[in-house]
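Final report, closing paragraph on structural work. Over the funding period we assembled a curated collection of sequence-structure pairs, and we close with a single example.
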Amino acid sequence: MPNIYQVAMFNAERYPDKVAVSDERQALSFGQFCARTRALSAYLKGLGVKSGDRVAIMTPNSIDYLALLHATAVGGFSLVPVNTRYGAAELCYLLNDAQPTVCIVDPAYRPLREQIEAEGGLNSAVQWLEHLPESLPDHRVDDPVQHRFGRVGDEDVAIIMYTSGTTSAPKGAMLTHGNLSANAVNYIMELGIDAHSRSLLATPLFHIGGFGVVNGPILYAGGSLHVVPRFEADAVMDALRLYQPTHVFLLSAMWVGLTDHPDFKELSLPDAQFVQTAAAPLGQWRQDLIRTVFPNAEFSWGFGMTESCVTTIKNRYTQEILEHPGSIGYLWRHVQYRLVDADGKVLPDQRGPGEMQVRGPTVFKGYWRQPELTAQVLDAEGWLHTGDLIRVDDEGFAYFMGRSKDMIKTGGENVAALEVENCLASHTDVREAAAFGLPHEYWGEELVAAIVPANGREPDVESLREFCRQKLSGFKVPKRIFIVDSLPQSSSGKVQKFLLRQRYV
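Its predicted structure, as stored:
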C-alpha cells in the first residue's frame, strides 16, 4: 500500500492548485501542504528527531497537525496524539511510556507541563514545544525517490494512539502506514469519495476517528478538508454554513449538541451527500432533524475501534437503517470476520451472538512495548479479538449485543471501569466500588458508580466526585454515585454489573 504522503504528492501533481486543507486563516494547495509537511519533518530532524523516534502532540486540530501526520512518512518517526482532556498524571504516564523526543503542547496546557516538571515525574528527557514556526523553507529531500514517495514501508508505525483498556493504564495502539491507507481505500470505495468531496474536520485528531473516518480518506482521494480547532456548536454551524461540505462526520455527542441548538434547524446544506455518526445511537427526532438540515444526504452509522484503524462495520444508505432497525451495518469488503463463543470456538452458523474477531489490512500492529497485552487481543493468525458481542442476520447486517470487556463508552471516550473503581476505592470512606454505564441520549452511556461505605463511614457523594476529579480526567468522573449496602456478586465473587444496571436504568 502507498503511504499518505505519497498519495498527497500524487494529488499535488494531478491537482497542483487545488485546495487540500483550510482553516479560518489560510488555505493550502496540495503542493503547499506537501511542502509544509517536508519542512516540518526537516525542522524536527534539526531538533534531533530520528527515524523510529516518537513525537507527541497535545493541541487542538490544525493544519500543522495534519501535516505532521503526513510528515511521519518523510521523517520516519511516529506521531503520538495526546487527548487534550488529560490531566497531569495521565500526560506524565503517556510520556514515560511513549518516550517521545519532542512533545508539542499548546500554550493552554502549560500548567500541566509545569506540574509535571515540578513533580519530577518524567523518567526520560523530552523537548517541549509550544509553537511550530509559522514560516519554514521548503525542504528538498536529497534522495529524489524519498522526496516523492517518503521513506517508510507498510509495516512502519505512523501513529501510536493511546486508548483505554480493561486495565487502569492506557495502551498505545500502533497503527501502520499500511493501516491508514487501507482504511482510506475502504472509505473511498464504500462512500464514493473523490476529488470533489469536501469535509469539515471538527472531531478531535487525538482519536483515530478524527482522521480515519471520512476526513483522512477525503484528503487521500484528492478532496478538501476545512479544519475546526475544536467542537463548539456555534463555530461548527458557522463553518457548515460557510464551507458547505459534502461529507460530515461527528460523534453522537456532537450531533446532540448541534440538534439542541435553537439555530440548527435554520441551516441549509443541500450539497451534503453523507453525514455519519458513531459512538452511540441518536434519538429518532434528532435523526429526523438532521435529515431536514441535510436534505440530500445519506445518514449512516459507523462501528469499530482504534485497534482496527477505526471502522469495520458500517451502513451506507439511510434506507439500510430504516429496513434493518437496530443494525449497525455490514462488514466491509476488505475485512474478514468470524464469531466465536466464550471458549474461543468458531460458531458454525456465524450468526451469533458471539465475540467478533476481525482480520485484514486495517488491523493494528500491536500495543507499544506491551507484547503480552498484544498477544491477548491479536493472535498468531492475525485475528483481532474485539471483545464486542455481535449477531449477524441472513442479509449480512450486524447487531451489537454488548461488550465482553468491562468498558464504558461515554461521549466518544472509552473509560476503563477498573480505573474509576480503583480511584474510588482509594478513598478512606469507600470499601468497594463498581463503575458501569447506563443508557444516555447525550453521552451514549452515562458513567455512574455504586460504592459500599467503609465501616463506620458516611461518604458524601459530591466529595467523592471531587476526589475523583482531582485524580482523573473530567470524562472519567462518575456523573452519579449510588451508595449501597453491598454489591451483587456471583458465586465466584465477581460483581454482577448487569444487576446494577437493571436497578438504576
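The CA atoms of residues 50 and 139 lie 16 Å apart. The chain has a mean pLDDT of 92. We thank the funder for supporting this effort.
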